[in-house]
Amino acid sequence: MPELHQTIVGPVVTEKSSAAYQARKEYAFRVHLRATKPQIKAAIESLFKVTVTDVRTLVVRARRRTYGRTSGVRPSWKKAIVTLKEGDAIQVFEG
């Protein structure tokens, strides 16, 4: 069971996540693989001082990667899409 500061690995800033933020105020985070929805909600609320209304999670599958003659595997990871209460915002995504 991860600690609160270990639950949230970092924000996912891509074109798709930026479009979701602009349209629906949804924030995407890379989270610990064993983190549950209540743990993610508690971590976001305590770290950013906001109110979370919805948490959706998905596991991004591992991918095979080839570099010349050698090949490897990128590990799988978990993504959480978080919706906040109306009026709340996280400054990481604002700038």
Number of DSSP-assigned strands: 6
Tally of separate helices: 4
Instruction: Return the average pLDDT rounded to an integer.
Output: 90
CATH topology: Alpha-Beta Plaits
Q: Quickly give the CATH architecture.
A: 2-Layer Sandwich
| N-to-C series of helices and strands | HEHEHEEEEH
Instruction: Specify the CATH homologous superfamily.
Output: RRM (RNA recognition motif) domain
| Low-pLDDT segments | none
Q: In one word, what is the shape?
A: globular
- Tell me roughly what share of residues is in helical segments: 25-40%
CA-atom Rg in angstroms: 15 Å
Strand order of the largest sheet: 1-2-6-3
Ends: how far apart? Answer: 32 Å
Alpha-beta content class: alpha+beta
Instruction: Give the class-level CATH name.
Output: Alpha Beta
Which oligomeric state applies? Answer: single chain
Beta-strand percentage?
Answer: 35-45%
Tally of separate domains: 1
Largest sheet: 4 strands, antiparallel
Quick gist of this model?
With 95 residues, the chain is α+β, with helices and mostly antiparallel strands.
